């Protein structure tokens, strides 16, 4: 049984995770941390330093503003930390890596097991198609309330592809001001914002006579919540270091074999 502290328990993702854990025989939310008090099946603390509940890991879905107090608490308690919050500054990312020398930290821009499995597939596909001269394009779609474009997930997919391509690809976000043929080293990234479109990410490897498309659709927040719970189970008891969702997937794959 993995005992979890939910940091940001009153937020949308915090509530989704708490509901899913209720049905999980291998996990339990033993405490929550949030800026506002709330009624829950577990104690909720508005001051993280007041939390005295024993746990195996922390899941964070909150705000970059809360990072320093969260890391200080996790380090003091020697608690593994699953960081699902995004939007950290360069200085905060350095601080997270510093924390990784003292505790186990898993940070991911997207907790979906599907997206993280696709990232692995994209690296393999890039090794085949980019040297063969195939063009690579990413198109992502989201609802009209999403603030950032392109999405963090689209950039994570692009980074995975470019890493496999030894950094030779150049990200191109807008071709409207350039009247010229597509350069072979381009990696096009396009964003659509409309209505209530569910999060959709498509990657195209386009050759002269064939098109390979890898697509992911997110129908609900549960996919991110399930990934975070799996990450917490994986991270419990791990040695200090920086981990990511590829480690979780490798662990799950190993257990299945």
In whole angstroms, the N-to-C terminal distance is 22 Å
Number of helices: 7
Catalogue the unreliable spans. Answer: none
Shape: elongated
Q: Encode the helix/strand succession as letters.
A: EHEEEHEHEHEHEEEEHEH
pLDDT averaged residue by residue: 93
Largest sheet: 7 strands, parallel
The strands making up the biggest β-sheet line up spatially as 3-2-1-4-5-6-12
Secondary-structure content class: alpha/beta
Helix content: 25-40%
Radius of gyration: 20 Å
Q: How many β-strands, per DSSP? A: 12
β-strand amount: 15-25%
Commentary on this structure:
The chain is an alpha/beta fold. Helices cover 34% and strands 25% of the residues. It contains seven helices and twelve strands. The strands form two sheets. A seven-stranded parallel sheet has the order 3-2-1-4-5-6-12, with helices on both faces. α1 (12-22) links the parallel β1 and β2 (27-33). α1 crosses α6, α2 (67-77) packs parallel to α3 (90-99) and α4 (113-129) runs parallel beside α5.
Which helices and strands occur, and which strands form pairs?
Blueprint: E1 2-7, H1 12-22, E2 27-33, E3 44-45, E4 57-60, H2 67-77, E5 81-83, H3 90-99, E6 104-107, H4 113-129, E7 135-142, H5 152-164, E8 170-172, E9 186-193, E10 199-206, E11 211-218, H6 222-235, E12 241-243, H7 245-256
Parallel strand pairs: 1-2, 1-4, 2-3, 4-5, 5-6, 6-12, 7-9, 8-9
Antiparallel strand pairs: 7-10, 10-11
């Amino acid at each position: 049984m993995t005992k979890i502290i939910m940091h940001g328990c009153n937020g949308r993702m915090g509530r989704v995770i708490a509901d899913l854990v209720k049905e999980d025989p291998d996990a339990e939310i033993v405490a929550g941390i949030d800026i506002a008090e709330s009624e829950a099946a577990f104690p909720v603390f508005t001051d993280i330093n007041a939390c005295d509940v024993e746990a195996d890991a922390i899941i964070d879905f909150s705000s970059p503003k809360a990072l320093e107090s969260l890391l200080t608490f996790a380090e003091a308690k020697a608690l593994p930390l699953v960081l699902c919050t995004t939007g950290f500054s360069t200085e905060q990312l350095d601080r997270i890596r510093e924390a990784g020398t003292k505790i186990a930290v898993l940070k991911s821009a997207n907790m979906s097991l599907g997206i993280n499995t696709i990232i692995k597939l994209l690296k393999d596909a890039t090794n085949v198609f980019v040297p063969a001269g195939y063009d690579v394009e990413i198109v992502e779609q989201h609802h009209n309330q999403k603030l950032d474009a392109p999405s963090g997930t689209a950039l994570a997919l692009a980074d995975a592809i470019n890493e496999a391509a030894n950094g030779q690809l150049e990200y191109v976000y807008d071709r409207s001001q350039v009247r010229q043929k597509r350069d072979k080293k381009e990696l096009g990234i396009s964003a659509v914002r409309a209505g209530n479109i569910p999060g959709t990410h498509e990657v195209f490897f386009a050759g002269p006579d064939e098109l390979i498309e890898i697509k992911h659709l997110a129908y609900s927040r549960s996919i991110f919540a399930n990934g975070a719970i799996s990450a917490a189970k994986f991270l419990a008891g791990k040695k200090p270091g920086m981990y990511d969702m590829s480690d979780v997937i490798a662990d799950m794959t190993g257990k299945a074999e």
